[in-house]
Design brief:
two-stranded antiparallel sheet; single chain; TIM Barrel; 9 helices; alpha/beta
Length: about 280
């Protein structure tokens, strides 16, 4: 069965995210392990961790994490970068406690100093984090980005460099966001563009390093470098692009989650999931 789901809120406790995912028929969900707009959070209560692990086993739902939005491992500001590393360390500790297989991370922004310097700063920060968490099972899944501003991760070559530069590449992986790669210039909408995109990805980093997908349509067009998510089939990518991806045997074992606009009753998540299931097969 294809692993399909959505990002779920942890309001009321991380274990409540599993309840929400089960309610709308997810068999995979993504969560924040703390407030995504704060550098640091309170420790997770032991009873909450136990409830989370128990519910995950009972439901069979796969859960992985996503880091907060303040983290920038490529920051040119030494204080900000140091705080980013500490914040990421906390995210890894919480993810390990929750027994998450990986946590998704936006690589960061080089702040105008250029891709080469930014890529090296990210690699140095990752190296420090991986050394400080030696023995941990949780991986870091670097997310593809739209290339907005000075953001890194908009080219598959960036990921190749990170895998080459870190001392523990086996603890790294990649999460591909469909909106982001399309906005970054990878044409997954046309037949030839789709084939060329995955041929380049395979050559640069290999399918073995791909851990998950974010399924998002894009409000803006190809190579716009603007990160704006849209409901499936309602953006510039359209339904056919997602049908092709969903039925690609190269990825039939990988979790795919929505990060499309939400509403409190999760009606929009239900709508998007229903469409994805219709496109599957």
């Amino acid at each position: 069965m294809r692993l399909l789901g959505a990002h779920m809120s942890i309001a009321g406790g991380v274990d409540k995210a599993i309840d929400r995912g089960k309610l709308i028929g997810c068999n995979v969900i993504q969560i924040f392990v703390k407030n995504n707009n704060q550098w640091f959070g309170k420790p997770l209560p032991e009873e909450e961790i136990k409830s989370f692990i128990d519910k995950r086993k009972e439901t069979g739902i796969l859960v992985f994490g996503h880091t907060g939005y303040l983290i920038n491992l490529a920051s040119v500001n030494p204080d900000n970068r140091e705080k980013s590393v500490r914040s990421m360390m906390e995210e890894l500790e919480k993810s390990e406690a929750l027994k998450l297989p990986f946590i998704v991370l936006h690589p960061g922004s080089h702040g105008g100093q250029g891709e080469e310097k930014g890529i090296k700063r990210v690699a140095q920060s990752l190296d420090q984090l991986l050394k400080d968490t030696a023995g941990y099972k949780v991986k870091i899944a670097l997310e593809t980005t739209a290339g907005q501003g000075t953001g890194l991760g908009c080219k598959f070559g960036h990921f190749r460099q990170w895998f080459e530069l870190v001392s523990s590449p086996e603890r790294l992986g990649i999460c591909v966001d469909t909106c982001h790669i399309y906005a970054a210039g990878y044409d997954i909408k046309t037949n030839d563009g789709y084939k060329n995109t995955w041929s380049e990805f395979k050559a640069m980093v290999g399918f073995d390093n791909l851990l998950a997908f974010h399924l998002n349509d894009s409000k803006k067009g190809l190579n716009c470098r603007v990160d704006r998510h849209e409901h499936i089939g309602q953006g510039t990518l359209g339904e056919k692009a997602f049908k092709r991806l969903l039925n690609d045997n190269n990825f039939d074992h990988l979790p795919m989650v929505l990060e499309t606009p939400k509403d409190p009753e999760m009606k929009l998540d239900r709508m998007n999931l229903a469409l994805l299931r219709r496109l599957l097969g």
